[in-house]
Fold each of these.
Amino acid sequence: QAPDSFPPLRNEAAVHILRGRMKGIQGHCNSCYMDAALFSLFSCTSVLDSMLFKPFPLCDRNVQSILRDEIVNPLRKTGFVRAGSVMHLREQLTDKGQCSSFTNAEKDPEEFLNLIMHQILGIEPLLKLQSGGQKEQDCYCYQIFMDKQEDLVVPDVQQLVEHSFLSSDLKLVEIPSCFIIQMPRFGKEYKMFSKIIPSLELDITDLLLDSPRECCVCGDVATLECS
């Protein structure tokens, strides 16, 4: 355990601490979905550090301390988290979520995020989405759904998000404080893409509802949008 707080890893420090054998979060009993989610959320960014410290109204402080002291701080300090620490968190999620399979079965990352953010920590939803002018939907992450695109062989995240929003007729109601994106699902038998290039920055200008944008023909403020 690492009870002291450590900042997220950046630049050369991230490469030095996270690269090599016995680095990252050790997998055990189908924990890959949770390991990948926790690594993505905390290793190199502080945008969700409120999950570790803030006393939310419904917050379970025991789960919060396990997440902070047994997983995030060791990951940032040494670059390694043992499987037992993640299993400790999974056992607590099993108790709190009335689901007996959190300790041994593979889950969808969205199910894990909804449980820990909504039911256990009581965090407000991070995203507000609107589809085709209908009622707003609140959620904690966005999972990319799309048909196979023959022209996208090795896509980047920017392309995937834009294609997914367009095909689902979705818009962001407001700029999110944190935009968690789940890549297209794949299994042992099928992968939609062999590789996905991370976009280090994401331009959401065209994804925002009622956002003023420039006309691509005349340069004035656009009044119409063509899909």
Amino acid sequence: DLVDWQKPLLWQVGYLGEKYDEWVHQPVDRPIRLFHSDFLESLSKTAWYVVFIVWAPVVLYLSWVSYTSLAQGNTRLFSSFTTEYSIPVHKYYFPFIFLLGMFLWSLLEYLIHRFVFHMKPPASNYYLITLHFLLHGQHHKSPFDSSRLVFPPVPASLVIGFFYGVLRLLLPEVLGLSVFVGGLCGYVVYDMMHYYLHYGSPKKGTYLYGLKAYHVKHHFEHQKSGFGISTRFWDHPFRTLIPEETFEKED
């Protein structure tokens, strides 16, 4: 009764105020329309395989560019500070730099999920509530909407471009690209895994089965913890791990 389900929800949720946080964590099994515009609505949805089709070739191409660029032997770490003590970055380091990018993505995945997607917007701020619902609230409200389980390529490209620009500023060009492509691969794995955790049927006792159970608990029992999706690793040091439940056997 708090919203009109026949109209786009994005412009309504900001008026829920102090009721928003409780409302958004009461899931429903129905599709959500966000925008009046059919064009904008289409940009907010995507099939899971589109993410792989769009970004996997980019990962392969940029990996080749990074490796062949490092093979030229012109990349050196700390060369902007000193030429005498700069460290050459050989092409054989690329797999390790790539894995470093994936590792950094896993941390970024956790931080974004916890501090951006699960921020608690002030009840008096219409715009922050609306932004929260757009970014992640709509997923918790309708966790079975298969069209919104992965990040659509158009808005994703803006975020990905931002992080590429940051790495270009912080690291030598080829080194930054190598870290970036590893992070991009981590993102693709994360998005594919997130879809699978909602709709896949992993075998009991496997790693993915444990992650699926963990993610289900995050949605329906522990919305303020369990922020790791592709891994629970970062929930340990940040103390947001969902506790294991134990059940005593009846005599």
Amino acid sequence: MVVFNSLLGAAVFSVVGVLAVPSVGTNLITRAGTPGSEGMHDGFFYSWWTDGGATATYTNEPEGQFSITWGSGGNLLGGKGWNPGSHTRVMSYTGTYQATGNSYLAVWGWTRDPLIEYYIIEHFGSYNPSIGFMSKGTVTTDGSVYDMGVRFRSSGLSLFTQFYSVRRDKRTTGTVDLGAHFKAWEASGMRLGASHQFQILVCEGYFSSGSCNMTVSEGGSTGPVTTTPEAERASLDPIPAADLEALAR
């Protein structure tokens, strides 16, 4: 799922269109089809985007809390966090997330120089986003194994890269050591841009239905980190039985 945000610069705007940017402090009103917007709310940066294909309601709650409900159809994404992001932030979150169909609960952000969109996916619906990306190995952090990977995307005349960490043990409450993921990506040849744009926890839906009510905060305890790049991981994987039989013949 591709969403270009208005913070990414006029060059991107001219190709793919932009979201309306409200004044700082804008608070969205709960109603069917909440229009896309972004800004500051109660000390946190928020962003909300929808293509209008579904009845979707986004609400800014106190501090780091937000809620979304959506019906089937369309593409939508929204949440809260920080702008700019950080290479070393530890993010904690808690709440409820339920979805039928293709959906993510994830940390989402962008960097410049080069332009990189990234996801650290904590929960997903019917579609596993690790299917189809270029595998870059795994990182074990925050109590689970994450599959790392890369996709190359285009929108109009703009080309960009997506980085992923996809958690194998899904959860709706936890702590994400973003720095651990970023270091693991770099060790696997996935280098983020020099400067961060926003960095937020989001719920995203694509022709699905669901709801989420999440609260995000900064800080939290993290555990040990182990990175296994793809080449090394392949050497550690057991040889399939069929291949063993072929070798024996």
Amino acid sequence: VVCLVAYHIFFMLFVWSYWKTIFTLPMNPSKEFHLSYSDKESLEREPRGESQQEVLRRAAKDLPIYTRTMSGAIRYCDRCHLVKPDRCHHCSVCDKCILKMDHHCPWVNNCVGFSNYKFFLLFLAYSLLYCLFIAATDLQYFIKFWTNGLPDTQAKFHIMFLFFAAAMFSVSLSSLFGYHCWLVSKNKSTLEVFRAPIFRHRTDKNGFSLGFSKNLRQVFGDEKKYWLLPVFSSLGDGCSFPTCLVNQDPEQASTPGGLNSSSKNENHLFPAKPLRDSQSHLLTDTPAWSEATAKAEKGKVGMSNPALTMENET
């Protein structure tokens, strides 16, 4: 009876997670990241160069974005006509920009991103538990098959196939699930592993990592009672993320609180631009920029940044 109840629980959670992963539409950037009609006209009218850079700088001036392209340009999508939020990428299969895109999964025929990443993790977890449960309960009959303890019927070949299928899927799912658990602990996406995010001053592969606990809460939320259920509980809006700039630009203003240069790599410092209210509570126990430092930072960005050039990304 206990095995039968556990079987149905695993199966229901597996189907529920799979359903949510498939049919949850990936979130697109909000309207504020889209260029206005006048900016689109200016961008199309001006030749590719400094004039277009100025249009993009003006459009991104008040947006909570900190990442750039490899050449230092504002991340812009010429297919969706928008300034890309941090961790947003254009999916060539879906033909649209996906917030916090991890990858496009052919097994679910959907993009895995901010809106369904938690569902995808739970789908992997419950799939793994389901396969392990089947393999464990079928093991005794599999042993009897090799010891000729089963009746000589066609059913014994079904038992052998079921055990091998469950065992092989368990191995593949365990490696994939373990990999994504590591991504969650480091607050990275699959795309960011292959190409580290580039901030205004330099590339920082751990730029979005806030520590294991906060990284976990970003995906699963603050309410632990919802962690194991396929209901959306991730923090934030998908457009802005807390970020720590561990390696600061040497020309940047001095760190707040009297921190000297030797302690820069030991403290997580945050950008001058304010985060959304939905994300700022993650940083309540970390020193933030003072208003004076923020103004100095804004003043130096225009002078120290390299010339921005348009560059398209996928």
